[in-house]
Design brief:
Helix content is 42%, strand content 5%. It is mostly helical. Strands 1-2 form a two-stranded antiparallel sheet. The protein starts with 7 loop residues before the first strand and ends in a 10-residue tail after the last helix. The relative contact order is 0.17.
Length: 77
C-alpha cells in the first residue's frame, strides 16, 4: 500500500514543478537538506517556523520512497 502524502504538492507553476510542502515555496529537497544541518528539529522549526513536524516527516518519507528504486553510486576515497 502506497502512503498518501497529503502535505507534499507538485505544481508545474511553483518551483519548476519540484515537490513542495503544502504549496509553499519550500521544496522537499530543501527540507531534507535542512534536516541534515539542523539535527535538532526544534532548531529547524525555529529557522523555518512555517514547517510543522508532520511536514518534516512526510518530506523524509517522500524522499526515501522516491529513492527506493534508484541506485546511487558513491565514490570511495
Amino acid at each position: 500500500m502506497r502512503k498518501k502524502f497529503d502535505r507534499i504538492t507538485i505544481d508545474p507553476g511553483l518551483m519548476n514543478g519540484q515537490p513542495c510542502i503544502r504549496n509553499m515555496r519550500l521544496t522537499v529537497r530543501r527540507v531534507v537538506e535542512a534536516v541534515a544541518v539542523y539535527t535538532d528539529w526544534q532548531e529547524l522549526q525555529k529557522e523555518y517556523p512555517e514547517l510543522e513536524t508532520e511536514d518534516i516527516k512526510q518530506a523524509l518519507e517522500f524522499a526515501a520512497t522516491n529513492l527506493d528504486s534508484e541506485t546511487i553510486r558513491l565514490e570511495v576515497t
